[in-house]
Design goal:
The complex is a heterodimer of chains A (147) and B (885). With 147 residues, chain A is α+β, with helices and mostly antiparallel strands. Chain A has a single domain (2-139), classed as 2-Layer Sandwich (Beta-Lactamase), CATH 3.30.450.60. Chain A has helices spanning 24-41, 80-98, 104-109, 111-121, 132-138, and strands at 2-9, 14-19, 51-55, 58-65, 68-75, 122-123, 126-127. In chain A, helix 2 (80-98) runs antiparallel to helix 4. The longest helix of chain A has 19 residues, at 80-98. Chain A is globular, with a radius of gyration of 14 Å. Chain B has 38 helices and 17 strands. In chain B, strands 1, 2, 3, 4, 6 and 8 form a six-stranded antiparallel sheet that branches. In chain B, helix 17 (285-299) packs antiparallel against helix 18 and helix 23 packs parallel to helix 25. Classes of the chains: A alpha+beta (147), B alpha+beta (885).
Chain lengths: 147, 885
């Protein structure tokens, strides 16, 4: 299960968050844990450089793209490598939508499209799509080209 | 939003300043949402409003029921528009709004229409939305379309239906299971993602059918799997089949497949296979070697995720097969300087597990540099690993102790410092040579310790261990410094420690007296009181004489009274001529309040703090019972049950009972509370009718003399039972007492009372009362080491049952044993299940039980029960419990 996908700005303000199977009372713990991890490690990190951690049987992979921090949390089959795959496709889609590593403003300008990308990639904790070309078309309701 | 035509670089400044959602307000956005009702829809404007709604939802804003309904109804009007971009947004916002069951109907027809549309993308999205918002009734209506969609030639449609299936399986398993043929067909799809989703769904549909999963794995391991993700799933399912095949000897089935995956081109697959091999039960060195080799290669990968995955897996392997990991030590050492501190910490702790005695010094040098730049939570892991290493190589205590003392002096939070102090204390206790240096390190630490808790803990420890050293006087300076420099809590602890030195080391006594006398001028009451108390207890004349045994017991012994009771008595004590008498404090343990006991055992997932362990009441019960002369010859207490309520909540008298089991006796401890302020109960006892418990004979009863309002009291009834027999029976209970009216204004009771009775619930002694829940960490090892000598196996028919899970739970409760390795959980709709139990039976006999269940279509459950124990008679007793029930 993909427990969470969370996107924040560099100050730790949440831009998008999607929790799956995490009780409401635990979400703020997660939020602050992830934001702290980002604040500790992502300042000055390279674009799309991956950071990884685990807590008990839960894995966290996070990265930075432009001014935006991106975190994914998973357990069971969504281990660190699967999460790396998920984060890779999310960053690729953000890059496609924004045409470059986005500033916070650009990210918010493209907010609707990015929400659509996330909707194509993750559905309630299950990875649905991993092909950026396809996602790029699906968010515009265009069929994939490679059928 | 109009963008000014400016150069890109200039644009950046503006970007930082303005957010398109600056000042966004829910009320305004809801107003804006009225554009959805316009007869001439503006798709762009509508999309913008939907984006704002999404932003609000993502920011944690919630809509009231009325607001959500209004927005939802407006959104449904957008189906009129043919604009593709807007339609895509509509699908998303409907999912986010999660309409209630009575609202769904509004949108169903539009979605059904889209689901049958010729436009593939409409179909895929409509499926996803419908499945998200639908209930069971609607699902049966659209099932036909979903089955078609699973085998649709468009992979997007097929994937949408399959992922919907994965979600729906949780809520409507019966329906989704009917799609098995279509899903099977989709597993053969040429589209990689369709195959991945189909494989996941098919395995979940068939997870309880071991043979079917085995067949699936067999066919796919020979066929083509198109995506690395699907291949990873296949490896996981293969591991499951291997685990369940229980092959102990000879070639392991599918090992070759796992091994071949180590040469796959995707790193994800290689890693999954390597991990699967390392986790095989009873894995041999030969099987392990190729997996370790690829993991070793990953250690020097440029990708942090791969390095992390590899070192984490090797860290686990090091716990069971440290020798197999030693080849990776050089690569692991280079990871100590890894930028990712999680990786570095895992590398360090792995090295600490696999390192040999000769490499300890070198390792410590490397770790020293590393410690300064990691967070406290990592440091704690390292400290714990060092503690284990020191216990493993006690000869190396000097360098390890030095390391601990050095990091103790550095900056760090409470938890970290506590971990270090705890480690030093453990090393001092386990390695006698380490005692003197360890105590000095602790002394130096308290010279500059900011944590009161740690200072008092160390002072207490010094008081016990310090006087036993060759030169106790050298610690006095450190202790006495506390009296000058610290807060009152620490000062009071230091006074107690000084007194202990005085009591144990006669030669130091006169000098200790001088110091203690100085403490009687302290500004704090507690410090002065302690100093005065100790001066008097030890004999204030300061002679070099041996301290009385009683005084030593007073100083070093346990208080022997529950602190809660002492606190209550002290609060109730009113200063008077009569001094407080500690003997007047009741020694009875107050049972846990009802609310605590009945709170559901909710387990926090994820980062939730671990629940605190239950307070150890067993010792307290043992002390309580041994203090009652009537029970003193019953021998050692075997087990005390948790309290069983004998009254409803909020009745006049709250009574619960704890069953104490001895070899030949059973004592019922009735905990009673009088909840009526206007009553005083006296001579309270419980009359027990044991006519339905033939093996039990009442031997004694101990009433409570007085039971004032809201003060717990205990009455006891003891029974004798035949030795070695798991006697069971039912006991009916009646509370009997004399009730006296209490004047609420004065609180005084009338002299005359009336005898009265109060019927309590019945109580049963069952077989599980003779069993203690004691788990084992590795059931298989425990089972093997117990041997077959006293194994008893038999089969039982449990008759028709509600479900397999219910049958498993009933047998666990019947035996009262500890389920091991999570085997108490039965997969939904499983047809067979193995449950492993462990416990200690009356007479302290270890018992292990392996239960194998099977359920037939008629819901008849059959059970095979295998028992291994240290005593043949106990194995028989377990079978008797099952056969008699």
């Amino acid at each position: 299960m993909l427990l969470a996908v969370l996107i924040s700005n560099s100050e730790g303000n949440i831009l998008i968050e999607r929790f799956n199977g995490v009780p409401a009372e635990e979400r703020s713990h997660w939020r602050s844990f992830l934001v702290k991890s980002g604040a500790d490690n992502l300042k000055g990190a390279r674009n799309e450089e991956l950071f990884v951690a685990s807590h008990k049987s839960v894995y966290v992979v996070y990265t930075v793209i432009g001014d935006v921090y991106l975190y994914v949390v998973g357990k069971d089959e969504y281990d660190e490598l699967a999460l790396a795959e998920v984060i890779f496709i999310i960053t690729a889609s953000i890059r496609d939508v924004c045409q470059k590593p986005p500033s916070e403003r650009l990210f918010l300008d493209k907010y609707g499209r990015i929400c659509l990308c996330l909707d194509e990639i993750v559905w309630k904790g299950v990875l649905e799509n991993t092909e950026r070309e396809r996602i790029n078309r699906l968010i515009r309701l265009k069929p994939p080209t490679n059928i | 939003m109009a963008q000014p035509l400016v150069k890109k670089d200039d644009d950046r400044d503006d970007e930082a300043e303005y957010s398109p959602f600056l000042g966004i307000e829910k009320g305004a956005v809801l107003q804006e949402a009225r554009v959805f009702n316009d007869p001439q829809l503006d798709p762009r404007r509508c999309s913008q409003v939907i984006t704002k709604l999404l932003y609000l939802l993502n920011q944690g804003d919630s809509f009231t029921k009325v607001e959500a309904t209004e927005v939802f109804f407006s959104v449904t009007k957008l189906f009129q528009s043919k604009d593709l971009g807007l339609r895509r947004m509509v699908y998303l916002i409907i999912k986010e709004l999660s309409p209630s069951a009575d609202e769904v109907i509004i949108v169903t027809s539009s979605l059904m229409k889209d689901m049958n549309s010729k436009t593939d993308m409409y179909r895929a999205n409509a499926i996803r939305v419908l499945c998200r918002i639908t209930d069971g009734t609607l699902l049966t209506q659209i099932e036909r379309y979903l089955k078609q969609a699973i085998v649709d030639k468009n992979p997007v449609v097929a994937s949408a239906a399959l992922v919907s299936g994965i979600h729906l399986l949780q809520t409507n398993p019966e329906i989704v299971k009917r799609w098995s043929n279509e899903v099977q067909e989709a597993v053969q799809s040429r589209a990689a993602l369709v195959q991945f989703h189909a494989l996941a769904l098919l395995q979940q549909i068939r997870q309880n059918d071991r043979l079917a999963v085995s067949k699936l794995v067999t066919s796919l391991t020979r066929g083509t799997v198109r995506s690395p993700l699907a291949q990873c799933l296949l490896i996981r399912y293969t591991s499951q089949v291997i685990r369940e095949s229980n092959t102990q000897t000879g070639d392991r089935p599918f090992y070759d497949f796992l091994e071949s995956c180590l040469r796959h081109k995707a790193e994800m697959v290689i890693f999954e296979a390597a991990r699967a091999i390392t986790e095989l039960s009873g894995v041999t060195s030969r099987e392990l070697t190729p997996a370790i080799t690829v993991l070793q290669l990953f250690l020097s990968s440029s990708k942090p995720v791969l390095r992390f995955a590899a070192v984490r897996t090797l860290n686990k392997v090091a716990m069971t097969h440290p020798m197999a990991v030693t080849n990776c030590n050089i690569d692991m050492e280079s990871l100590i300087s890894d930028q990712n501190r999680s990786i570095a910490t895992l590398a360090i702790t792995t090295l600490l597990k696999t390192g040999n005695e000769s490499s300890v010094d070198r390792l410590m040098k490397q770790i020293t540099n590393f410690m300064s730049d990691i967070a406290d939570e990592f440091k704690i892991v390292v400290v714990e690993a060092i503690r284990s290493l020191c216990l493993k190589f006690p000869l190396k205590y000097r360098s390890l102790m030095n390391f601990l003392s050095n990091i103790l002096r550095e900056e760090g939070g409470f938890e970290y410092k506590k971990a270090i102090v705890d480690s030093i204390v453990i090393l001092i206790r386990d390695i006698p040579e380490a005692k003197e240096s360890g105590l000095l390190h602790l002394c130096e630490f308290i010279e500059d310790c900011e944590f009161t808790y740690l200072s008092t803990q160390i002072l207490h420890f010094l008081g016990i261990e310090g006087p036993k050293t060759t030169d106790p006087s050298k610690y006095i300076r450190y202790i006495y410094n506390r009296v000058h420099l610290e807060n009152a809590t620490v000062r009071a602890a230091a006074v107690s420690t000084l007194a202990k030195f005085g009591a144990m080391v006669d030669a130091l006594k006169p000098r200790i007296f001088v110091l203690l006398r100085r403490c009687i001028f302290d500004s704090d009451d507690e410090v002065r009181d302690r100093a005065t108390l100790y001066l008097n207890t030890l004999g204030g004349d300061g002679e070099v004489v041996e301290t009385d045994k009683d005084v030593k017991i007073f100083l070093f012994g346990d208080l022997d009274i529950p602190l809660v009771n002492l606190e209550t008595s002290l609060k109730n004590y009113e200063p008077s001529e009569e001094s407080f008498d500690i003997d007047s404090v009741p020694k009875e343990v107050k049972s846990q309040p009802l609310v605590e006991k009945k709170a559901p055992g909710k387990k926090p997932a994820g980062l939730g703090a671990p629940p605190a362990g239950p307070p150890s009441t067993v010792d307290a019960y043992e002390r309580l019972l041994s203090s009652i002369p009537e029970f003193s010859n019953f021998g050692k207490l075997f087990k005390s049950s948790s309290p069983v309520e004998l009254t409803e909540a909020e009745t006049e008298y709250a009574v619960n009972v704890v069953k104490h089991i001895f070899d030949r006796h059973v004592v019922f401890q009735y905990n009673c509370i009088n909840t009526i302020p206007e009553q005083l109960l006296e001579n309270v006892s419980v009359i027990v009718d044991a006519s339905e418990a033939e093996d039990f004979a009442e031997v004694t009863s101990k009433p409570v003399r007085s039971l004032p309002y809201d003060t717990p009291g205990q009455t006891f009834v003891a029974f004798e039972k035949p030795d070695g027999i798991t006697a069971v029976g039912k006991f009916s209970n009646t509370l009997r007492f004399i009730v006296k009216e209490v004047d609420p204004s004065t609180g005084e009771a009338e002299e005359d009372g009336v005898e009265d009775e109060y019927q309590l619930e019945d109580l049963e002694v069952v077989a599980a009362d003779y069993m203690m829940k004691v788990g084992v960490s590795n059931f298989r090892n425990a089972w093997e080491s117990m041997g077959e000598d006293f194994e008893r196996v038999d089969e039982y028919g449990l008759g028709p049952r509600e479900s397999l899970a219910e049958a498993v739970s009933a047998v666990i409760n019947l035996l009262g044993m500890q389920p091991c390795e999570g085997t108490e959980a039965v997969a939904t709709n499983s047809r067979s299940h193995t449950c492993l139990l462990s416990g200690v039976f009356l007479g302290n006999v270890r018992v292990l039980v392996r239960l194998q269940f099977g359920i037939e279509g008629s819901r008849d459950v059959a059970m095979k029960l295998a028992v291994r124990s240290e005593d043949e008679a106990v194995g028989d007793a377990i079978h008797e419990i099952v056969s008699c029930s």
